[in-house]
Amino acid sequence: MTPLEMERYAPRDGDHVEVSFCEEGADSQESWWEGTIQREKGGFYFITFPDHGETGQTNEVVEKERLRPAYGLHPIQFDKRNFPIPPSLAADLKATEGSLPKLAKLANLIALNISSDGRNLVAIGATQALEMADALVDMHFHKVPQLAKVAKQAQALQGKMHGVQQTLSSGVIEQFRVDGSQIGMLVGVKGSNIKKVQGMPGIKKVDVRQDGMVNVYADTREAALAAREKLEIVQDRIAVQTNEIGLIIGKGGQQIRELEQISSCRITVENATKEIVVIGLRTSVEKARALLTYTIETFKEQRDQEQQIHSLSQELYQLGVPLGAQSYEQGYGYG
Question: Could you report the per-residue pLDDT of 140-185, keeping only the tens digit for each?
């Protein structure tokens, strides 16, 4: 107590006080003992102290200067309160049960648990703590659906992570990246390319992220590399003659669109370099090259046959052999 508080302090009969005791000696320490004022007379206070001896108490007469109010702890009364759980929140509250200890701590409760029948939140604590819990529980009930949604998402991710960790611990992983614009080409229609690779021997799983990162989980390094070879996006350039470009493109781009559809590749023409650029899975690019080669070779074969027919027609004409409906006019390529 401050000197001013000590000056104003007026102990009364029946007050619980602490009394200062100090043994004689230069290095003696002060101690305080709690007692009760029985009466005051002439500035002196008759104090009764609890004792475990035969009389059950000890008496002492002291001056006011040796007194101060008792600051000892007194027993606190605890109570229990049930907070009914709305039936629509029972499952979500059970899923977020791990947040209840934090709620109890904020309210200074001794305990906060779901009852055995799942119908109530049971809170145990002092009156003030229970009043605090009343407001916190009401807010918690409003937040529970969103908390449960987040908890379920976290649980799902943890399960997925556990599965991945198990996969990693028992095999190998091969990682590579593709351009974001090429993900659809890699995955295939309705995931067909991924399904094919996951059906390969030794392949456990293939994950394709939105940023283009591809993870191949396999039993062995050889299996993982074989899967990567099937899924990697590659580019091929095929040189063509100027008069072959129009054939490959076709009327209105119909021929090149058909080639793209059949091969599942992206096919473009670079007029400046006279090259056909093919982008797709390695096997698809090989298929596209075969289709382009077939198209070009067929065009060349047709062109040679047309030249031969034209030459023979001219020779027969000069020999006076009538051709009639078989007369032929040369016309290379496709319109």
Answer: 999 999 999 998 888 888 888 887 777 666 788 899 998 888 888 8
Give the strand order in the sheet containing 44-50. 57-63, 44-50, 30-41, 16-22, 67-69
> Could you tell me if residue 264 is left (phi over 0), alpha (psi between -120 and 50 degrees) or otherwise beta?
left
DSSP 110: S
Cα separation, 68 vs 50, in Å, equals: 17
171 in helix, strand or coil? Answer: coil
The pLDDT tens digits for 290-317 are 998 888 888 878 777 888 888 888 888 7
H or E segment and range at residue 184: helix 183-187
Q: Which residues pair with 50 in a beta bridge?
A: 57
Radius of gyration of the chain (CA): 47
Per-residue pLDDT at 141: 93
What share of the chain in percent tops pLDDT 70? 88
Q: Are 264 and 312 in contact (CB under 8 A)?
A: no
25 pLDDT band, cuts 50/70/90, is low
Buried residues in 43-58 as b, exposed as e (16+ CB within 10 A): eebbbeeeeeeeeeee
Taken in order 60, 65, 70, 72, the sign of the CA dihedral is: negative
Listed residue (253, 250, 281) closest to 265, CA to CA: 281
**What phi-psi label fits residue 190: left (phi over 0), alpha (psi between -120 and 50 degrees) or beta?**
left
Neighbouring residues of 203: CB distance < 8 A, sequence distance ≥ 6: 197, 216, 217, 218, 219, 223, 224, 227
